[in-house]
Amino acid sequence: MKQFEAGKYDVIVVGAGHAGCEAALATARMGHKTLVVTMSLDSIALMPCSPSIGGTGKGQLLKEIDALGGQIGINADKTLIQSRMLNTAKGPAVHSLRAQADKKVYPKIMLEYLEKHNNLDIIEGIVEDLIIKDNKISGVVLNNNEKILAKSVILTTGTYLKANILIGEENTESGPHGEKRSNNLSDNLKKLGFSILRLKTGTPPRIKKDSIDFTKLQEECGDDTYLTFSFDLKPSYTTNKTKEIINDNLSRSAMYGGYATGVGPRYCPSIEDKIVRFSDKEKHQLFLEPESIHYDEWYLQGFSTSMPRDVQEKLVHSLPGLENAQITKYAYAIEYDAINSLQIKPTLETKIIENLYTAGQINGTSGYEEAAGQGLIAGINAGLKLLNKEPLILKRSDAYIGVLIDDLVTKGVKDPYRMLTSRAEFRLLLRHDNADLRLREMGYRCNTINEEQYSRLLEKKANINYLIEETKNNKLLITAEVKEIFKENNIECPKNSMNYYDLLKRPEITFKLIDQFHNFEYDKEIKNQVEIELKYQGYIKKAYKESEKLKKLEEKKIPYDIDYDAVKNLASEARQKLKEVRPLSLGQASRISGVNPVDISLLGIYLKKEYGKND
Amino acid sequence: MIFISKFLPYGKQCIDQEDIDAVADVLSEDFITQGPKITEFEEEISKYVDKDSIIKISALKNEGIEKVHDKIESMVFKGDIKSNSSVVVTNSRHKDALLKAYNSINDAIVGIDQRLPYDFIEVDFKNIWDYLGYINGDTVQEDLLDTIFANFCIGK
Lengths: 615, 156
What we know:
Chain A is of the alpha+beta class. Chain A contains 21 helices and 21 strands.
């Protein structure tokens, strides 16, 4: 079959979801001629599932992506319906921002931005094969046989590889929401030696706003941990009737009926999963939220299912407030191919084919933010490699993005990976308030952060230090007036005068209070940072010390061509795993499951003997 | 047998001609082990020590060892063995790790009393876990290799 050569680019990004958009913008910003190939211009940066962006763990990812010059945060801000800060009572380490974006507007704004961007072309098409020469990528082949050449290719195919939509016994070859799917790309990847997994995820039904009885929802309020959510989030819950219907029809669900083969996300179970796994629970919490101000469909969060349509009708009608609800889009489960993430390097380049990168759900993750974070890193690294520069590899103590990628390439994935704050050991250091202080400089060195943004960062850092100095150099004298103010605020007044630096270390004392005594002329953001730094100094120092230990192990590099068979006395499981993952450092090696501290010591001794000094 | 003086000097050797003669006698006879001198020794010892506490074993022939097990077991159950409060640690790295773990435990208690958010207290808990892991091998010690190379010869 004749292949038509349609053009030549520096980078081709396959798929324009959240990962694809970040990757393409990163390489374009770095000055590389970039092409985005998408199935449909209408499905760029789609939000096929939840209309919310951020949340626990994900909010931190968002801030980090923004700090590194990514687009998702900027786009979200432009299209917000509501936003809230979560977990404010639980301390700054787990504060995360959650927002509802407008589902119709979000993709539109992103598309407009992409179309106007320099170095960036977009075409519609489906990539079905890759062009390889000497184990190096040299281009892609579309479904119409057009051949497009490139020096680097980034695959961000999301859930479109051999996708199947499952509703009850129905099984349709299709991408999300009735779109096309890729038929051959994953088979071609298999031929190249990639090991492919089958994963699944699901989405809940959409309900017509007018058919919801809101009076019933407002009365029965959820538990108060959700009071910090937007008031537009209406709580509901399952009933015994819901339980009954599910149990009666379990064999008709795609999952339980055995029609599905993919592994679903543990942290985003379907409603039938919840009923079966937590069978003694009386009620399961659900939420209804609007998808867009432009149309009247509401999203029923917590109710994803692969039951047949008639059962879905019964289920929805068993919920309070939804007795007469009209389903505008039925829920479904979607199965898709993903690659085994152990085949990817920490730079997100594949181990098998040079200059081929993968990012997003194709690596086995779930969620927009997780995808965007990978897309950004893949784009940055593809771009850096083309410039013959060192790649950007974020450590677990640098960013949640670092935790995410390290987990993927070191531990692998069995079910779709969702970011949780509990996955990060250094939560106190990876706060969402200090993402820019941690990462902006790195973004600047990669050219994804411009001069103006960088100089603002330097100014911010300087101001933080000036303010800290000022608090050290100024004392609060305890006068009768001062005592009175403390009393009014119900805070214990210090007995002796002390400088503001020490004063701020006390948990109850904030700038809001001491502004009444001394005028510190700094922005709220600066004051907030200083407060956090002073109050949690002790713990932040401890966490920092821990991260230094980690760094030491990360610095002990393992040569890529090491022969693990020559390392004596390794546990056989350890040896097998080390060969599979090929970690870059002793640190990464220590995190591989099946590799024990003894194995690390043996490896360390071997490295020292074979490769001389490696400290 | 000569009556044993109350103190046996440790630093100075006190073997005299009588001892040498006794050893020489045995060497020139038929038995080196399990001979009549053993029985004589046991009888003498039993004048000073309770007969039940004497167990005859041969490590070479693997005889009598189970009697030692049984004796220790019965001593434990009878309450004859008192645990003293001193803790024995076999090397200085372990001691260091235990002290650090102990300090972290105290820090954690302070944090809990102050009702700090879990993420802070978790830092202390992780430290406790890691320090204990240095002792039982569950934690990778980043400086262990340096210690090993400093204290042991790995060889070429």
